[in-house]
Amino acid sequence: MAKIPRFRTEEEIREFWDTHDSAAYFEDMEDDKVQVTMREKGVLVLPLGEGRLRSVREIALEEGVSSNLLLKNWIDEGIKRKMKVTRRV
Question: At the top level of its lineage, which domain of life is listed (predicted)?
Answer without folding.
Answer: Archaea
